[in-house]
Amino acid sequence: xxxxxxxxxxxxxxxxxxxxxxxxxxxxxxxxxxxxxxxxxxxxxxxxxxxxxxxxxxxxxxxxxxxxxxxxxxxxxxxxxxxxxxxxxxxxxxxxxxxxxxxxxxxxxxxxxxxxxxxxxxxxxxxxxxxxxxxxxxxxxxxxxxxxxxxxxxxxxxxxxxxxxxxxxxxxxxxxxxxxxxxxxxxxxxxxxxxxxxxxxxxxxxxxxxxxxxxxxxxxxxxxxxxxxxxxxxxxxxxxxxxxxxxxxxxxxxxxxxxxxxxxxxxxxxxxxxxxxxxxxxxxxxxxxxxxxxxxx
Length: 297
Known about the structure:
The protein has about 300 residues and is of the alpha+beta class. Helices cover about 30% and strands about 30% of the residues. The protein has helices at about 1-10, 40-55, 105-115, 130-135, 190-210, 230-235, 265-285; strands at about 15-20, 30-35, 60, 70, 75-80, 90, 95-100, 115, 140, 140-145, 150-155, 160-165, 170, 170-175, 180-185, 190, 215-220, 245, 245-250, 255-260, 290-295. Keywords: Cell cycle, Cell division, Cell shape, Cell wall biogenesis/degradation, Cytoplasm, FAD, Flavoprotein, NADP, Oxidoreductase, Peptidoglycan synthesis.
């Protein structure tokens, strides 16, 4: 891998060997990646894509890291950190061209300044545009996919643009396999003071109901299509405060798994499996993880 790293550096790309993955996830868990790359342009992304294909290397596209669990042993292959692909272009009033690594908070700040609404429901969430699209991030009855007019993706067939229509389900992206590089978004006109009030309201609701002081994924499980929410089921199953090692189900919100300091990926996986089994046994409901679990190999 050292030789491959030298080759990429000669091409002007920023790369690191054996980079600890816990540094890049909100739950603060994960061993080293063989190689992590930090592209800042579309051309560098394409170079990494072709390089990995030629070398037969596994590749993982990492956005904000809020819904991903890497193995304790890390990742054998190349992790491409997309946070350097930032940028917002105002195409017309309320219509934005946005790169995948742009923090959603930047869009909220734009709305506050210009009088546009749409992303306030994610206030306080460390999401990037790419991750918000791939997970169809949502909260309080709103979803990011509702803002997306089109996406530009790198797929096995090359760069392709897709209409946002029919691309999204509940916490799901239904587009082709690949990585979202940019998107065209549509925000709604709204008085800036109303936007500010919505941001304050969503932040207050999060502080009141969610354990924000410890590393976590946010919600660990999707809500079932019918019936009580996942957090309610987990609480009713007696799982608040349940621990495996340094991983614990929050006593404040049962759909949050907290890293108490030195949690391992195996602790978290075991905790998630135990939680699913208990809910299934008691209520006959199979909870679906909202977290992507990434194997070492």
